Task: inverse folding
């Protein structure tokens, strides 16, 4: 009985881990090419405010988290187009403010419990059927949208101004990408938690850039690296009895360091 | 009345309350190759961006082929554009052909992939600019002059009537500069284009274009070459000296009084 149960939660963890990491791996390439690494950090930490609001209002933190993350992503974009601050400054302001807001919400709701810890650092082994379904929906939706707008997303990453001149609806696609990023960040929180999410959005793409010089291969490589890190991290964490999310991130970081330090692994022109 | 590619009346553009362009009136006939000269910060790139629709003017009227630039773009009639720094990230993982194909993306439209015809147009334009053999190379691995050709090929892929080049010869050596001017002239004839070309290279521009516009927030001169010394001096705000070396392109040396 116990073994069956453990099989069940492990299966769910594995399934969730593969889906989330696959999605993060694909988006990671665009995050790297558009130099948006810090935005991932900003959005994920902002989600803390939304999650805490969920606890305060006693509603599913997923929805308040998504709402908050999307709102902050759009606010960052709006602030940098409507004021003189640079993007990284806007991110620095909004993510600190949302985390502070999250602490106030938590204080008001008086729930300093394990749930909060789970959101901060991830708890993949606690993923239930409902979360697996949520993760599946987001993964399928975001992958479909990415595939549909693949050529435009590449053009935007290459040169936004030129993309606009060529007739591509740049602003709409910028917002779309931010919303997708916010959705992905939220479901990734189940895996590695708010604090470590950005690792999934940065390291696979950076590792893939070390290994290959063409964007299509880079996307497949990045997805493979992410899934390898997630599955390997899950397995290692069971073996060593380490925290799962942290083990995944450490394994990904190891991949990155390996491909950076070992020149024979790198493509001819890789990350020169 | 001649056909006008660009018709600008009483144009004003401000950056943070400071005028970047003042009271610009400009008519450019179709089929002309026009050089735009002026010192740094004169508003050359700004003028191009207004024509492209990237900047919406505070005051004045801009018409490209008789329509507002935004409207023109919306209708799918796109201006071919070579930005000043077209390669922001030299390690961007795409090939030369991928970059040229990007010029087709707006035409192909959302939710559709570039087809065989788009591939063919991209390859034909690579041939036009003389670098079909570089199609498969990573964009970061080709030389500066070759990159300019790649981006000109991309601009041609939108099948434009108007081609706008922002400093196409910057950071090129003298031979490569001349090659670019010859190429632009040939493309203009072959494709019936109107071409606007911003440049710092006074000598090169004066030798290769039909008309010259000198700009320093205001437009000072609009006349056919040979370009007058007074016109240049009033645009640059300092005296300008001509040096001629027989057949070699004209060089211009600025002499500052202060």
Result:
């Amino acid at each position: 009985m116990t073994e069956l149960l453990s099989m069940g939660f492990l299966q769910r963890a594995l399934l969730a881990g593969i889906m989330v990491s696959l999605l993060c791996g694909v988006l990671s390439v665009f995050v790297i090419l558009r130099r948006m690494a810090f935005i991932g950090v900003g959005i994920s930490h902002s989600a803390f405010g939304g999650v805490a609001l969920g606890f305060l209002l006693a509603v599913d933190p997923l929805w308040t988290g998504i709402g908050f993350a999307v709102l902050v992503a759009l606010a960052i974009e709006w602030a940098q187009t409507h004021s003189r601050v640079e993007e990284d400054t806007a991110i620095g302001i909004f993510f600190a403010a949302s985390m502070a807001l999250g602490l106030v919400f938590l204080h008001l709701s008086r729930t300093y419990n394990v749930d909060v810890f789970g959101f901060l650092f991830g708890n993949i082994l606690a993923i239930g059927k409902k979360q697996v379904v949520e993760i599946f929906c987001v993964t399928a939706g975001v992958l479909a949208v990415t595939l549909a707008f693949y050529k435009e997303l590449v053009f935007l990453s290459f040169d936004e101004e030129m993309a606009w001149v060529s007739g591509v609806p740049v602003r709409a696609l910028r917002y779309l990408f931010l919303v997708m990023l916010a959705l992905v960040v939220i479901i990734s929180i189940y895996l590695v938690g708010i604090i470590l999410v950005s690792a999934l959005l940065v390291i696979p793409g950076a590792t893939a850039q070390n290994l290959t010089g063409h964007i299509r291969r880079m996307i497949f490589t990045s997805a493979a690296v992410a899934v390898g890190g997630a599955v390997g991290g899950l397995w290692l964490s069971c073996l060593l009895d380490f925290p799962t999310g942290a083990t995944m991130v450490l394994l990904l970081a190891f991949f990155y360091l390996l491909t950076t330090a070992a020149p024979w692994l790198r493509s001819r022109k890789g990350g020169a | 009345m001649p056909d006008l590619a660009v018709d600008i009346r009483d144009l004003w553009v401000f950056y943070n309350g400071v005028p970047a362009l003042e009271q610009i009136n400009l008519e450019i006939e179709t089929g002309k190759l026009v050089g735009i000269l002026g010192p740094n910060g004169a508003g050359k790139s700004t003028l191009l961006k207004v024509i492209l629709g990237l900047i919406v003017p505070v005051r004045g009227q801009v018409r490209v082929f008789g329509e507002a630039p935004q409207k023109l773009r919306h209708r799918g009639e796109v201006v071919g554009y070579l930005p000043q720094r077209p390669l922001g990230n030299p390690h961007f993982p795409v090939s030369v052909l991928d970059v040229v194909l990007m010029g087709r993306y707006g035409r192909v439209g959302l939710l559709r992939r570039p087809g065989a015809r788009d591939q063919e147009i991209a390859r034909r334009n690579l041939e036009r600019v003389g670098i079909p053999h570089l199609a498969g190379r990573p964009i970061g691995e080709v030389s500066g002059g070759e990159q300019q050709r790649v981006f000109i090929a991309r601009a041609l892929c939108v099948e434009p009537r108007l081609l706008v080049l922002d400093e196409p010869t910057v950071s090129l050596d003298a031979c490569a500069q001349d090659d670019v001017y010859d190429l632009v002239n040939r493309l203009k004839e072959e494709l019936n284009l109107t071409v606007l070309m911003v440049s710092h290279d006074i000598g090169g521009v004066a030798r290769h274009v039909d008309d010259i516009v000198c700009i320093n927030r205001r437009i000072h001169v609009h006349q056919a070459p040979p370009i007058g010394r007074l016109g240049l001096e009033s645009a640059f705000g300092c005296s300008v000296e001509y040096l001629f070396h027989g057949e070699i392109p004209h060089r211009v040396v600025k002499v500052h009084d202060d």
Summary: Chain B has one domain: 31-55+70-255. Residues 241-258 of chain B have pLDDT under 50 and may be disordered.
